[in-house]
Design brief:
It is a single chain. It contains eight helices and 22 strands. The protein has helices at residues 16-26, 32-44, 60-65, 95-102, 120-131, 151-165, 203-208, 212-215, and strands at residues 3-9, 72-77, 82-87, 107-113, 136-142, 174-179, 222-229, 241-245, 251-252, 256-260, 264-273, 276-278, 280-281, 286-291, 302-305, 311-322, 333-338, 341-355, 360-362, 373-386, 397-402, 408-414. It is of the alpha+beta class and 415 residues long.
């Protein structure tokens, strides 16, 4: 079954957790003990409704404050699809969490409080999804019950958001607007009688109808070698296979491939999944590949289709989301983990800091603090094989690791 990854974004009290809880409730995805806990807690608090935010705000601190402070991943399925929803915090001080949640998502739900409309945080949420090349954006205009399900108010917010859309630099995004009330369930899973003026799909209907291939930034086939398989058995004494995961497009038996970094050419001889042979390895499948020629490949090397090579270089420029309390400064060294590869890198220059509210850039920056986003140039101690992030989300992204603490301190997207 297809799996659609979705990131949520919204300001404090816009209703992200309530919306997700409502989806789980209306699709009958809540376990009986979880539903009972929600009912009991709602009664204790004196609510005359079920507080669906309790379905996702799992940390004690979150429940006490009534806010989301960490990324929670929620899993559920319908007859058509399986879903993974990243419930991310909306506060500016948790920008890094929003980046983490959206970095692997194919779709995003941006919530807007119908009473407040488009605010500064909305700019930030849209910017991050634009930066991370999320193709499918659903703008859920929530709490429509608090504005009497006003079509006029809905159209005002839609017009304001369309002005924001004009500032983006990624034109492949599709934007869909849905008026909802997460608390009451209007247009979330079931169509609402309170919005006869709205002729579109419900939120879930729209998600159910998405073509996963169309919303995925597929790119071209990349096969990083994770392990070289050499069985020490009499039956397979001459077997030499390369295990890894296919990113981007498909690889098939007979495809001419180039091994990196040696740039030696060969053809795919066999494709195995466990003990079964296949003609084609589909995107994101974990397989073992054998080649027609004896090629020296090891962990961290890569197989790509001939005529479709990535960039091979010891330097690149990337957009960085900084996640550490210690500043990133020019001259400091970090480990770049790019797929399987780990390479020592030095910060060459901080070109400029990017204001994620579309207010411009800031030059002459001497360091990056937590939650800053900036364009940074790195020099590496050996070449890596990369694509631009806009062309290949997997092979164009990396993480930065502190050489002393071994902590992940940043996420990068190659420009």
């Amino acid at each position: 079954m297809e799996v659609l990854k979705i990131a949520t974004a919204g300001s404090v009290d816009d209703g992200k957790s309530t919306l997700i809880g409502r989806i789980l409730y209306d699709t009958k995805s809540l376990t009986s003990d979880k539903l009972e806990a929600i009912e009991n807690t709602s009664k204790k608090r004196g609510y005359d409704y079920l507080d669906f935010s309790l379905a996702t705000d799992g940390l004690v601190a979150e429940r006490e404050q009534g806010i989301t402070i960490d990324v929670a991943h929620i899993y559920f399925s319908t007859d058509k699809k399986s879903y993974i929803i990243a419930d991310t915090p909306g506060h500016v001080e948790y920008t890094r969490n929003m980046v983490t949640g959206a970095s692997t998502s194919q779709a995003a739900i941006i919530l807007i409080d119908a009473r407040k409309g488009v605010i500064e945080q909305t700019h930030r949420h849209f910017f991050i999804n634009n930066l991370l090349r999320v193709k499918e954006i659903v703008v859920a205009i929530n709490k429509m019950d608090l504005v009497d399900f006003s079509e006029e108010r809905y159209n005002e917010i839609k017009a304001d958001f369309e002005q924001l859309m004009a500032k983006r630099d990624y034109e492949d995004q599709k934007i869909t607007f849905v008026p909802v009330s997460a608390l009451r369930g209007d247009n979330v899973v079931h169509r609402s009688e309170n919005t006869p003026w709205y002729q579109g799909e419900t939120l879930l209907e729209h998600l159910e109808g998405l073509d996963l291939a169309a919303v995925s930034n597929v790119g071209t086939p990349r096969f990083p070698v994770q392990y070289v398989i050499r069985p020490k058995t009499d039956d397979h004494h001459d077997f030499r296979g390369f295990a890894g995961k296919v990113y981007g497009g498909e690889l098939s038996v007979g495809d001419e491939v180039v091994a990196l970094p040696s740039q030696t050419r060969s053809k795919i001889k066999e494709i195995y999944f466990h003990d079964k042979k296949y003609r084609t390895a589909s995107r994101r499948s974990s397989v073992t590949i054998t080649l027609e020629d004896e090629i020296n490949l090891s962990r961290g090397d890569m197989l790509v289709k001939a005529g479709d090579l990535p960039t091979i270089d010891k330097q690149f420029t990337a957009t960085i989301s900084w996640m550490d309390t210690d500043k990133l400064v020019p001259g400091k060294k970090y480990v770049v983990q790019h797929g399987v590869n780990k390479v020592l890198a030095k910060v060459n220059t901080i070109n400029h800091k990017i204001h994620p509210d579309y207010s411009g850039i800031e030059e002459n920056v001497d360091g990056l603090a937590m939650n800053d986003i900036a364009q940074v140039t790195f020099k590496l101690n050996k070449p890596i094989f990369y694509d631009k992030f806009k062309n290949h989300r997997t092979n164009g992204s990396f993480i930065l690791i502190d050489t002393q603490s071994n902590n992940t301190v940043g996420a990068g997207f190659i420009a």
